[in-house]
Structure prediction request, 409 residues.
Amino acid sequence: MIKLEDRVSVVILCLLTAMALFYSLMMLGDDWAAGFMDRIGRPAPNQDTLFWMGSWGFIYLALCVGNICALLAPASDSKVYFRAMSFLAMVAFLRVIGNTIASGEEVTNYVPIVAQLLVLVGYSIVLSRTNSRIGKHFGWL
Amino acid sequence: MFKTDDKVVQISLAVSYAIMAMYAMINFFNPDYIISNYASLEPNNTNVFFLIWFGMMNFGAVAGLIYMGYKGLDRGYFAYAIPLSLLFVYWGYSGQSSLPADQQNYTATVMLGINFIALLIARIRGMGAFNIEKASVMWGTEDKLVQAILWVALIGQAVFVIQYVINPGSFIEQTPGLEMSDVGLRFSMGLMFFALAWVSTLLYQLRCGYSMTMIVAGVVISSLFFMTFLNFLVNGQVEDGGNTQLTVVIILNFVGSLILFFRLQSKH
Prediction:
C-alpha cells in the first residue's frame, strides 16, 4: 500500500503527517488556538484572528492529506510535491525566525521555531533521498 | 471506482460517502451548528465532546469508503457499517420520538436511514449472499502480533459494551468535565453502538480474515483521537487527571492500529 520506496522518507513523512494533524486540530479549535497563542506569548486572539487560524488549520489538514498521498505513491510521482513542500518549509522557517527577531521581545517558547526547523530538515532529507532535488544546493542535507 | 462497473453500487456508496462526510465535517468542525438545530441539545461541553467523538468515528467511515473506492468492496466494512447505521436509525428515532412534538427533528434519522438503505443495496448488489467463508487461519494471517492486537481490540470493544450494559452512565461518571443528563446517557448509548459494530466486524474478521479497509478506518479514527487528546493535554483541558481508562484506550488504540497498518500494508 505504501509505494514510497525509501524507508527513512516514509518514517519522516509519517512524523510530519502526525505533526500536521496535531497543528491542524490546534488551529481549528478556538480554545486550542487561543491556548497556542497564550503559550507562545502572544495576545489573546479576537474573532478575526481565530477565523484566519482556522483557515490555516484547514491548510495544515490539506498538507497532512498531501503527505499521505505522497506515501501512497512512488517517489517519482511526488517530486514536485516534495520540492514545493521543501520551499514552503524553508519560507515558513525564515518567517518564524524573522518575526521573532523583528518583535524584539524575549522568546518564551522555542517549540514553534524548533518544530518549523525540524519540518524543514525533514523535507530536505526526503527531497535528497528521493532524488527529487534539482541541482546540488544544500546537498549536505 | 470500487472495482465494479455496477453504477447502482457506485451511486449507493457515493450517497453513503456524502452523508458520512457531511456529518463528519459538521460534528467535528462545527458541533455548535448541530446543537443549534436540535432543541434537545444544550450548548454545553458534554454535548460538544460527544458530537466531536461522533465526528471522528464518521471520518473513519469516510476513510473506509475512500479505501474501498480504490481497492474494491470489502465484506469487513459492511459487517461494521450496516449494523451501525441500523442501530443509529433506532438511536435517532427513539431519541426524537421521546421529545415533545414541537422539539422533534428527524433530519439525522432520515439521513441515517438513507445511509443504511444505500449500504444494504451496495452490499447485496456488489457482493452477493451474506455467506461467511472461513479463512485458512484465524484472523486470516499467521502474524502472531497482528493476531494478538486484533484479539485485544475485540475483547476491549466487548468489555466496553458490557460496561455500558452494567451501568449506562459509567463513561460519563468516569470522565471529569462531563455532566450526567438524559442527552448524555443517549450519547453514551451511541458510543456503545459504535463498540457493538466493531465487535460485529471483528468477529467477522476473526473467522473470515482481517479487513484492510477496517484497519485503515481504525488508523484514521485512532490518529484523530490521539491528536485530539494531545491538544486537550497541552491546553490543560484534562480535568482532575481525566478518565484513565479512556486515556489508556486512546494510546493503545493509536499504537495498536499503527502496528497493524504497518505490518499488513505491504500486502495490499
Notes: Chain A touches chain B at residues 1-2, 18, 21-22, 25-26, 28-29, 31-32, 35-36, 39 (CB under 8 Å).
